Amino acid sequence: MSVRRFVAPNSREAMRQVREVLGEDALILSNRPIAEGVEILALAEEEQQAAQAAAASPAVQACRESAAAPAGRMPVPPASTADPLDFAALGQRLLGEMQNMRALLDRQMPASATGGGCRGQLRQRLLGAGFGPCLGDEILAGLPAELAAGPASAPALQAWLERQLEARLPLLEDEAALLDAGGVIALVGPTGVGKTTTAAKLAARYVMRHGASQVVLISTDSFRIGAHEQLRIYARLLGVEVHTLAAVAPLEPLLAGLADKHLVIIDTVGMSQRDRRLLTQINQLGAAGRPVRLMLLLNAACHGDTLEEVVGTYQRATLAVGARLRDCIVSKCDEAARLGPVLDILMRHGLRLNYLTSGQQVPEDLQVAEAQPLLRQALAASQSSPFVPEEVPDGGGRRLDTWARGLFGRGRSLTAAFEGLRRELDGFALLERAWRLAALPAGVQGERLARLLEEEDEADDSGARQLLWGSGKPVPGATWNMPLLTLDPAGRLQLRPWLAHLLPTGYEQRLDWAFERLEARRHLLAATPEGGFLQALTRLRSPWIGAARSVNRAEFQGERRALARLGEVAENHGSLQLRHRGRPLWLDLRYLPVALRVAGERAGEWAAWPLQAWFGTLRDVDSGRSLGQRYWLAWSPETERQALVEQADGVRLLLAGEDLPALTLRAWQALGELQAPPRTELRLFLAAALATGASRLDQSTEDWAMDLRARLAGLGGGRRPRGPAQQLDSLLHLLAAGDAFRQLGDEIGY
């Protein structure tokens, strides 16, 4: 096993050398300061794979347990060649501890080695804004490598941090839907939090939308002097009906008499979280005879420990009477030095933030919560406030609470990942539904899948699409052909595979079906079309672009030449920057008008069909080093200028999809390892959909993809592959984790 040593003036330069020589997935063994600067010992990716293969052999299974080292200890490479048994044991130790060592080095490396200390700066900023260390660590665990490892601008880090907080903060999506739904809303919370004025403000917003005739105010606060009268004054100003009720009186008779009113707002008596009468109050609301929607008011100016106690107590009280507390309003925002503590509470407890209040004016000082301005205001406090956060380590009796919060954080990350994938990947919700079919008896899986796809296709309104066809031959290593995949008009892969054996037989029949059913506007082919397929495309005059090989021949200036030679005289088309197999690359494109011999109408008759030949060179973004050549042939009925633009885009799409057969095979094999593997059709559908989702996730350069890649990277353990294979494994772990959480919820009654 060859351990490489790198020495540089600083950690950033040393890490750059490691990535350039050993690749992004090199295993860092040690990092220490020396007289010359910094020394890093690293192990190449292929060495790790060799160690993994050796460690998996039957001869070394017995030594694994004894070879495992305690977490956090650094294994030392042997000074001399070890026998095979020792080599395998060391390899197993290295692989098993890789994640621990990565985390350890993140903590130990100086600022220059961790992206200019951005992780520490972000953590300090969250703490300074009032967010807790538990939430901060959860968020920073998903810091993308693109931001953590290289120079990242302050705006990019700020935008990323805001996105992570926004993804964790449940907000009221549509105020109109809330008010239009009506019903009974009860404002609950401690004394002095502003329930009475908030009830008036909420009623005023309804009056502005629907008028005063269908809203009613009820006050149950008979303890506070003047509470009933205060609400009556607001009611007269608004022109709405008002009723008063003793705190212990039943609500059911009054609500029964108000059944014709669209919205009833109840201003309850303030109850401290330590008041034993709190459970009685919540029970009274639960026995009102009509469903009551509870909204907890939280004082933004309160200390975080107090807010934690309030939320925990009120949530337990509502659970005790068989209800759930899901909504809240944050009051007195104008009095709070920092908003981080109350937002941290909402995120960790999953409370939906409906409104913010910041004064006494009705209704001006009640605003619908908006994520971006709210989070920017919260984060700005860490820069303007003299507050210096102090971290108190958890210990003793708090360890159980810390563990529980970590578990909740895991659940929040899981939920956020699912929501992001549903929002960004066309067809991910369909993949989820198909995934759950695998839990059904094998005999009904095919029928249920057919029914599910029929429902999906009836509701589909994607419009004209591009089609990504398989090669027409079984995928190497498999007995099945690659399913047909579709791309939406914007060129984004859709997670709805079409199984090849269910398509019409015959080239012309398939193309006619594709035109009528999928509104095909262009065909992306795994290989240059030949024979009947080429003839069918030619007759239909359908635009296409197909992958080719360097030895494929085309006619140029009256001679048939290999594409590898023709590339020397091709015209430059420019360069595209893209992600390919987990890394950013440049694609340099050239093109050349050529011709392909096509069989004519009569036997023995041939014609020269004009095409464009495309030549691509992949280059590393940092070093400019060439990473390979690609070739394509294309035809389009458009003008040359428009055709070149369309075909260059098609080249990009074909390059992005060239790993899909191997990814589908990988997913097929992984699904076969389940305790009860799905039946063939469902298994192939799931495999192709998973591969498509992994490819999209890996190829996209948008912020959502960067965030999701980092979020998903924490799922699963052990050695992780690079590029789309990593995203595929992460999706498999995500879906399996979702099953586990659902099963756990069913078993404990949630």
UniProtKB/TrEMBL annotation:
Residues 182-380 form the SRP54-type proteins GTP-binding domain. It is a peripheral membrane protein. The keyword Cell wall biogenesis/degradation does not apply. InterPro entries: AAA+_ATPase (IPR003593), FlhF (IPR020006), FlhF__GTPase_dom (IPR047040), P-loop_NTPase (IPR027417), SRP54_GTPase_dom (IPR000897). Keywords: Bacterial flagellum biogenesis, Bacterial flagellum protein export, Cell membrane, Cell projection, Cilium, Flagellum, GTP-binding, Membrane, Nucleotide-binding, Protein transport, Transport. Residues 181-414 form the AAA+ ATPase domain. It is found in: Cell membrane. The keyword GTP-binding applies. PANTHER family: FLAGELLAR BIOSYNTHESIS PROTEIN FLHF (PTHR43134:SF3), SIGNAL RECOGNITION PARTICLE RECEPTOR SUBUNIT ALPHA (PTHR43134). NCBIfam families: FlhF. Necessary for flagellar biosynthesis. May be involved in translocation of the flagellum. Belongs to the GTP-binding SRP family. This is Flagellar biosynthesis protein FlhF. It comes from Azorhizophilus paspali. The gene is flhF.
